[in-house]
Design goal:
The termini are far apart. Helix content is about 30%, strand content about 30%. A five-stranded antiparallel sheet has the order 1-2-3-6-7, sandwiched between helices. A three-stranded antiparallel sheet has the order 4-5-8. It contains six helices and eight strands; from the N terminus they run ααββαβββββαβαα. A hairpin with a 5-residue loop joins β6 and β7. The model has no long low-confidence stretch (mean pLDDT about 95). It is α+β, with helices and mostly antiparallel strands. Pfam families: Pep_deformylase.
Length: about 220
């Protein structure tokens, strides 16, 4: 194990010891760990330590609440992320956004590329590390996801719709990219009454007209 691997393991163990069965604090924009490239996961942790970290990430994501969480958001420069989406109640929103429920899963060293003939779709996004704001981001509607899961089983699959958006968002975190780097900044809105009205649209067409931006394609 290299010295950097050992340093990361010590960070993980310190975090686990500090929170116990609770949840971790989420690192916010401005912290350098969110702008660095995460260290590939290469068994720096024992199986029990990895299980404990995944459990902590799951608890923290759900408590936030969010639909994804990357290890750098806990201050850990390690290429791990968890995702889970219960979906939305509105059938119209679910259909337009292609937002099917996404069962909990762990992404280890994930990477993505646009799937063959993939189109792009633009919707509002937020981030647990950028609280109180949201903005429109154009992303691939379908991506090829590669990497592995927490057991070491290889991943190589096509992910579509809102699940593909979540995968892209969380994987971007591992390369030091925040969603705002890809956003249409004229769409930026606070999570207040007006902003929530924009984000509740199935597709942000009224926001586009009112705020003066073109929906990314």
């Amino acid at each position: 194990m290299t010295s950097r691997d050992q340093q990361v393991r010590e960070l993980v163990l310190r975090l686990l010891d500090g929170v116990g069965e609770g949840v971790a604090s989420i690192v916010r924009a401005g912290h350098p760990v969110l702008r660095g490239v995460a260290l590939p996961y290469d068994a720096q942790l024992s199986p029990d330590e990895l299980t404990a970290l995944v459990s902590l990430m799951r608890r923290t994501m759900r408590a936030a609440p969010g639909v994804g969480l990357a290890a750098p958001q806990l201050g850990l420069p390690l290429a791990l992320a968890v995702v889970e989406d219960p979906g939305v109640a509105s059938e119209t929103v679910a259909e337009v956004r292609e937002r099917a429920p996404l069962p909990f899963r762990v992404l280890v060293n994930p990477a993505y590329e646009p799937a063959l003939h993939a189109e792009r779709a633009a919707f509002y996004e937020g981030c647990l590390s950028v609280p109180g704001l949201q903005a429109v981001v154009g992303r691939w509607r379908a991506v090829r996801l590669t990497g592995s899961d927490e057991t070491g089983a290889a991943l190589d699959e096509i992910v579509t719709g809102w699940s593909a958006r979540i995968v892209q968002h969380e994987t971007d975190h591992l390369g030091g990219t925040l969603y705002l780097d890809r956003a249409e900044l004229r769409s930026l809105a606070a999570a207040d009454q007006i902003g929530l009205r924009w984000t509740s649209e199935p597709r942000p067409e009224a926001a586009s007209a009112a705020l003066g931006f073109v929906l990314p394609t």
